[in-house]
Specification:
- The chain is of the alpha/beta class.
- It has one domain (about 5-145): DNA polymerase III subunit chi (Rossmann fold).
- The chain has helices spanning about 20-35, 45-60, 120-135; strands spanning about 5-10, 40-45, 70, 80-85, 95-100, 115-120, 140-145.
- The protein has a seven-stranded parallel sheet, with helices on both faces.
- The two termini are about 25 Å apart.
C-alpha cells in the first residue's frame, strides 16, 4: 500500500484561544477524519500541548463533539481519536497520524497516511522542510495543501 503524507501550509499567525493555528487545524482535520470513520493518532511535542488539545476538543459545541482521549487514560472502548506525546502511546491500530512534533515520529512506518504542517515561523518551517525530506527518503508520496 502506498504511504501518503499531506503537508498543510499555514498562513495564519494569530493563535485562536489556547491553541495555535496549526493546533486548531489539527483538531479540525482529526474531527473530519473521525466523521469519515477513521481512527486518528495526534502526536504532540509535549504533554502540555496534548493537554491543551484535549481541553480544546472538550470545549467544542455539543454538535461538534469529537470522542477522544489522552494516551494512558483507561477507557472501556477504543476512542476514535487518541492524543499522545513523547513515547506514550496505546497499542490500538490507527488509520491516520497527525504529527505536531518537530521531528518525524519513530513509529511513522506503522501508518499509511499522515498529516504534517508547515507553520509560518521560519525556524519551524525549516524543521518542516527537514521532515518533508525525510518522508520523501522513506518513500512516502507527498502532497501539499493550503491550511
Amino acid at each position: 500500500m502506498t504511504k501518503q503524507a499531506q503537508f498543510y501550509i499555514i498562513e495564519k499567525t494569530q493563535p485562536q484561544s489556547l491553541l495555535s493555528a496549526v493546533e486548531v487545524l489539527a483538531c479540525d482535520l482529526a474531527a473530519q477524519a473521525w466523521r469519515l470513520g477513521k481512527y486518528v493518532l495526534i502526536v504532540c511535542d509535549n504533554e502540555n500541548q496534548a493537554l491543551n488539545l484535549d481541553e480544546a476538543l472538550w470545549q467544542r459545541d455539543p454538535e461538534e463533539f469529537v470522542p477522544h482521549n489522552l494516551s494512558g487514560e483507561i477507557t472501556k472502548f477504543i476512542t476514535p481519536i487518541e492524543i499522545t506525546w513523547g513515547e506514550k502511546r496505546n497499542a490500538q491500530r490507527r488509520d491516520l497520524l497527525i504529527n505536531l512534533q518537530q521531528t518525524v515520529p519513530e513509529f511513522v512506518s506503522s501508518f499509511n497516511h499522515l498529516i504534517d504542517f508547515v507553520p509560518v515561523n521560519e525556524a519551524e518551517k525549516a524543521q518542516a522542510r527537514e521532515r518533508y525530506k525525510q518522508y520523501r527518503q522513506m518513500g512516502w508520496q507527498l502532497s501539499t495543501e493550503q491550511g
